[in-house]
Structure formats: C-alpha cells, structure tokens
Design a protein that fits this description.
- The structure holds three protein chains of three kinds.
- By secondary structure, chain A is an all-alpha fold.
- Chain A has a domain of about 150 residues: Up-down Bundle (Four Helix Bundle (Hemerythrin (Met), subunit A)), CATH 1.20.120.
- Chain A has 15 helices and no strands.
- In chain A, helix 4 packs antiparallel against helix 5.
- By secondary structure, chain B is an all-alpha fold.
- Chain B has one domain.
- Helices cover about 80% and strands about 0% of the residues of chain C.
- The longest helix of chain C is centred in the middle third of the chain and has 31 residues.
- Classes of the chains: A mainly alpha, B mainly alpha, C mainly alpha.
- The interface between A and C is medium-sized, with 22 and 23 residues.
C-alpha cells in the first residue's frame, strides 16, 4: 500500500462484507419460504419484507464496495492522498447507519408508502444517502482534480457521478403507475446497465493493470471502447423495461434493438480480461484476485449478457415478463457483474491493506468456485422454473398458483444452490478476515507498483 | 490523401447513376427480378461509399467487413420478401395504376 | 471528449486493427454500433412485414418515392463535398476545407427540409408513429436517421471550426456513415416490395 488514506477502503469493505452476509442469509430465508411457506412465522418473516432486505442489502453493500474501491484505487491512480479522510469516515457513518437502519426498519415495517423495489427506504433515509453521496463525490473529485488524471479515474468518476445523479429520480413518485415505473427504471436500469458498468469497467481495468502488467495505453483503449459500447447500448436499452407498462408501442422496437447490443460491452470486458492475462508478462502472486477478475468478466457476460438477451426481445418478453426467467437473469447478472467485481478488488487489495502479501489463498480460491457454482446452479434451476412456468401459465393458460405448484421442484433445487452460495460467501468472508492472522506466506516477490 | 479527386468524382458520378437505376427499378412493376436489381444497385452504392468516401480502400479487411454487413441486411430483407411475397389484391393493382400516371 | 484530445497523438499501432482506419478509432466503434442498430431495425422490419405483407405493401406505396430519390441525391452530393473537404484538410487548406464543409452542410439541411415536407404530408394523411406497424418502424428508423443528420450537421460545424486533418477526417467519417445508412434504409422502406 503506497498511500495512507487507502486504509479508508478497509472500513468500507468490512462494512460491505457484514451486509453481504445479511444479504445472502435473507436470500436463503426467501428461498425457504418458496418451498415451505408456513415453516417460519409469517408475522416475523413476511415474504415481501424478506425480499426487500435481500435486494436492498445487496445494493447497499455493492455501493459500499464501490466506495471502498474508489478510496483504494484513486490514491494510487491520482498519486496523492484522499482529499479529506475525515469526510470519508463521516460519509461512511451516514451511509452505513442509513443503510442499516433502513434494513432494520423493514423488520419493523417502516418503509416508504409509495414503495418501489430497491427504493423502499423512507424519504429521510434517501436524503441521508444523497448527503453521503455528495460528500463522497466532493472528496474523490477534489482528489482526482488535484492529482494525476488517468482514463481509469475519469471513467470511474463519470460512473460514480452518474450513480448519484440518477438516484435523484428515486425522489420523484408520480401518481400515474406507468410514469412511476418509467422513472423507477431511470434509477434501476441506468444504474446497473449504465453507470455501474462504467465503475465495473474502470475497476477491472485497474485490476488488469496491476495484475497483468500490460501497458496502461493498451488498457485505456480497451476501456474507452468498452464504455463507448456500454453507453451506446445501455441508455436507450432502458426501453426493454417499457413493454406493456403503458408506454407507447414504439418502445418495443427501441428496447429490443438497443438492449440486444447490451451484450457487446460485456463480451468486450470478457475478451479484454482474457487478452490482458494472456498478454501479461507479470506473474502476480495474487492468483485469487486474477480468478475473481476473470470469473467476474465471464459470469457477467453470461448473466447480464446472455441471460439478459434471452428475454429482452419484445416478442419473447411478451410471454416471459415477470416470470422466474427474470429472477434467473437477475441472480447471475448481479453476481457476475457486481458481486464478483467487489470480491475481486477486495481480494486484490486486502493483502496490501493488512500487510500480508503474498499469502495463502486456498480458502479464497475455493470460495470462488463454491459461490459461483451455487449461483450458477440457482440460475439454471430458475431458468427451468421460468421456462416451464411461462409455458404452463402463459401458453397453456394454467392459473398462477397451479403453475407454481408444477415448478416446485425447481424451487427446491434453487434452495440447494442457495445453501451452497451462502456457504461459499461465508467462506470468502472468513478467508479475508482470517488473512491478517495467517502465517503461511507463499514465496515470491511482491511486484513493484505497476505502470 | 489516399483517394484522388478524379477517383472521388468518378465515384460520385457512379453513385448518382446507380441512384437513377434504383429510381427506375422502383417505378417498374414489383417483381423478383427488379427486387434483385434494387438490392444489387443499393449494395454497390454502399460499397462505393465505404471504399471511396470513407476511405476504406486503404483498409481492405474493414471494407470487406462493413460491406458484408450492409449487403447482408439488404439481402436478408429481400430474401424475406421473396419468401413472404405480397399477395396480389385488386386493391393493390388499383393503387399501383394510379401511381403510374 | 477527453479521450479524443488525449489520444490523437498516440502511435497508430496501439489501437490494433482500428489503427488502419481513417479518423479517430472511436469513431469507427460508433460507426459499427450504428450499423448494428440500423441493421437490427431493418431485420425487425422484415420480420414485422412477413406477418402482414399486404398491409405493409399498401402503406409502402403511400410513401413519396420521388422525395426519397431526391434525398438520396442530396446526401450523396453532400457526401462528395465532405470528401472534398477532407482532401482540402489533408492539403492543409483551411479555407477550402470550410467551404466544402459549408456546401456539404447546406445539402444536409436540404435533406432535412425535404424530409420535413414528407413527414408533414404523412401526418396530414393520418399516419403517425403509433398508427400501424409499418409506420411505427418507418418513423422510428427514418426519424432516428434524421436525428443523426442533425447531429452530423453539428459535428461538421465543430470540425469546420477546428479544420485540422484528424478532426475533419473524423467528422466527415460520421457524415459518410449517415449517408451509408440512408443508402440501406431508403431501398428497404421505399423500394423493396
């Protein structure tokens, strides 16, 4: 670690890991409710609340992870300390307590009246999030502006500013349900298929720069091409959420065409990562970070790209809208693109933050395979559930609950995949937390700062 | 400068000529033959624009790639018209004769 | 924007296969993306038409073919002027570059005027973007193309101000792309039946 203020990332990531554990645990509870609805007392574990915690906690910890990544990589890229470490901790306190009290509040049925998925937080928590975001943007923008400007920090800043700006639409709740949905997607879609992709591309670029030692010039060019295609396809790709929600019919064409191309940046990121590792001369000792990075790009391509394309064309979505196909896509896309990304940068940075590089990574590498296998198994189960459910319900005209009965087996399989995922996640967390105490040191020199 | 002025001007004249061929072909009665003429003339125009206007003469691989895309799109649309032809209806003939004047 | 200003000085080999292409390599990423979008839209047109060829043929017949041919000629001539501007920029003649670009822009403006009259006629006849599958696609694709003409005019204005070799090469590449797309869009909507 070259800069003292990179330590800020430690706080953010430890907070993120805590909420990660909460998130997957509630996922497991949700999966259990699917197969045994009356096992847990409904008054304490209503499904809507469990689902809300599962999805909200996901967003909160991924954002904490992004913040941590920014605090870790910006000093190295800008070649200077973070502008105000104190503000960074204030921001953490606001964001973490806000996120935590939102999640705890859900347990006591405190949430916005005009609730929309992912945005169920009461208004005062939303305002807290905005204050935290403003502090964060001020802090990192000042750091970047005063320091060296690289393509990686430019793209990262663009992405992070975009995240904050699009969140503002969460405050606007039109009474008209169709309009309400349209603006909801301004937050959700333009996050995960727009600005978050910029964060993902820049963090991956940073990791490739450090792990493979390929020239910065080459990496920057890939980065530009990836974000150009991401923005080109992602912005109008929002149209694939506007089918049959009351938006004009031409959105079916806009959505189908542009969102078909959303697979391109994910394909680009996958090719980029493999090309860099292939080309890289450096034998970096942190193999786990490399596996998470490569895994991230591959699973994002399949989860976000291929599984997204499966039901993005309006002729297909006419049948699959709101079935388990969406859930299958959602799980692998979030895991591949954003969970793996966070775990990759954490895996890369923790040894530096705790002065333990290089170290024994067997646990960490095992956790990659276990967690990924669990999520892929869940995805495949849900895909079958979705395809079968679509056929029974939308083609054959079976009633919703009868169709659900027919696909019960796949929910059971999904729960099995969920158990494996949670075990893998806990293994990952413990591998990072145990690491500071680990004695086993793998031989091999730590490479000098890459350039 | 990869393309000289005279080559550019020749390209332009050819493009305008092909456009006239297209216009005549379009006014002719719809048939598979004229459909093929339209596709070939349009495809040739895209190739000229790619090669001369966009200067892909200097990058043959890119010329082939981009031309393949434009040609493929035209050919696939034409193919679908041949597979799913417009049914001959009295309404249509009436419409057509009025446009001939 | 930042990318364009910092990257132009780089050695050509660094962009891999994109290095051989004229103008800024990222422009070619955009050109390829645009071709993909319009290509998919036209294949979507073929699919939608196959479901009701008769309705498509009738509405296709109502389009103003003469205006389409005129617009093709306008764009091709404009493209020729833009290519001449590119030559002038390579010769280092800023004045002639600007004159050719102005001529190219004037014809581009002419395209928009013709298209405007066409749209006005179609609206007057009761067609709009929601009136039928054919007109949804027609207005979407030609409208999206017209937006690119507008953007192209702005780009030509900007590169005319700069009048440097790379800028003009990049700006006219965009303009030729707009031209190229029309050469595919026009026959599909107006002529092929």
């Amino acid at each position: 670690m070259q800069y003292q203020t990179q330590n800020i990332a430690k706080t953010y990531w430890l907070g993120a890991l805590l909420i990660f554990a909460v998130q997957v645990s509630f996922g497991l509870v949700g999966g259990l409710i699917y197969i045994a609805p009356n096992l847990l007392p409904v008054e304490y574990f209503p499904f809507n609340m469990v689902r809300m915690i599962h999805t909200n906690a996901l967003i909160v910890w991924l954002l904490l992870g992004f913040f941590g990544a920014a605090y870790y990589l910006i000093p190295e890229e800008s070649e200077r300390e973070i502008w105000s470490p104190k503000l960074a901790y204030v921001q953490f306190a606001i964001f973490f307590l806000g996120g935590l009290s939102a999640v705890v509040g859900y347990l006591f049925h405190i949430y916005a009246d005009n609730a929309r998925s992912y945005l169920e937080q009461p208004v005062w928590i939303k305002l807290g999030i905005i204050v935290a975001a403003l502090i964060f943007l001020l802090n990192i923008s000042m750091t970047v502006l005063q320091g060296r400007k690289t393509a990686i920090t430019n793209v990262l800043l663009l992405g992070l500013w975009g995240i904050a700006i699009f969140f503002l639409f969460s405050l606007y709740n039109p009474a008209n349900t169709s309009e309400d949905k349209m603006f909801w997607w301004y937050v959700v879609h333009l996050w995960v298929e727009g600005t978050w992709e910029l964060v993902m591309a820049s963090v991956l670029a940073f990791l490739m720069l450090k792990i493979t030692g390929v020239d910065r010039e080459v990496i920057e060019k890939w980065l530009y091409i990836i974000i150009a295609t991401a923005l080109f396809s992602g912005i109008l790709g929002t149209g694939h959420h506007y089918y049959w929600i009351g938006a004009p019919g031409y959105w079916q064409w806009i959505g189908s065409i542009f969102s078909s191309l959303e697979v391109v940046p994910f394909f680009g990121m996958m090719i980029f990562c493999f090309a860099m590792v292939w080309k890289g001369r450096r034998d970096h000792p942190n193999k786990a970070a490399m596996i998470w990075s490569l895994g991230c790009s591959v699973l994002a391509f399949f989860g976000a790209g291929v599984w997204g394309f499966l039901h993005t064309l309006h002729g297909i979505n006419f049948y699959t809208h709101g079935t388990q196909v969406t859930a299958a896509h959602g799980h692998l896309a979030f895991y591949g693109a954003y969970v793996c990304l966070n775990l990759a940068i954490m895996t890369y940075a923790f040894p530096y933050l705790f002065n333990r590089a290089p170290y024994n990574q067997v646990l960490n590498i095992a956790s990659f395979w276990i967690t990924s296998a669990g999520v892929v198994f869940m995805t495949v189960s849900l895909t079958f559930a979705g395809a079968l459910g679509t056929h029974l319900e939308r083609v054959q005209g079976m009633s919703y609950m009868d169709a659900q009965d027919q696909i019960g087996l796949f929910y059971l399989l999904r729960f099995g995949g969920g158990v494996v995922t949670v075990l893998g996640a806990l293994l990952f967390i413990s591998s990072l937390l145990l690491m500071p105490r680990t004695k086993t040191v793998v031989t091999g020199a730590i490479p000098a700062a890459a350039e | 400068m990869s393309v000289t002025t005279s080559r550019l001007t020749r390209a332009f004249i050819l493009l305008i000529t092909l456009s006239l061929v297209l216009a005549v072909a379009a006014d002719a009665h719809a048939s598979a033959f004229w459909l093929v003429v339209v596709v070939l003339a349009a495809a040739l125009k895209t190739r000229i624009v790619l090669a001369r206007y966009l200067g892909l003469d200097a990058a043959p691989a890119a010329l082939t790639g981009f031309f393949a895309v434009t040609f493929l799109v035209l050919a696939l649309v034409a193919g679908s018209i041949l597979v799913f032809p417009t049914p001959q209806q009295p309404l249509r003939a009436e419409n057509h004769s009025s446009s001939q004047h | 924007m930042n990318a364009a200003t910092t990257q132009t000085a780089d050695a050509p080999a660094e962009w891999g296969p994109l290095s051989a292409l004229p103008g800024h390599p990222l422009m070619w990423v955009l050109i390829a993306s645009e071709l993909a979008v319009f290509g998919l839209a036209l294949l979507g047109y073929a699919g939608a038409r196959a479901q009701n060829p008769l309705a498509f043929a009738l509405e296709q017949d109502s389009l103003n073919r003469l205006a389409g041919v005129a617009n093709t000629a306008l764009l091709l001539t404009s493209g020729y002027f833009a290519a001449r501007a590119n030559q002038a920029a390579h010769a280092g003649d800023a004045t002639r570059t600007r004159l050719w670009l102005a001529a190219a822009s004037a014809l581009g403006l002419g395209f928009l005027v013709v298209k405007g009259f066409e749209y006005a006629g179609e609206f007057a006849a009761g067609h709009d973007i929601d009136s039928s599958p054919f007109f949804t696609l027609y207005f979407l694709v030609t409208g999206f193309h017209a937006l690119h003409v507008v953007l192209g005019l702005i780009i030509l204005g900007i590169v005319g101000r700069l009048a440097t070799k790379t800028a003009v090469e990049t700006g006219t590449a965009f303009w030729h792309m707009v031209d190229l797309i029309w050469l595919v869009v026009f026959p599909v909507f107006y002529l092929m039946r």
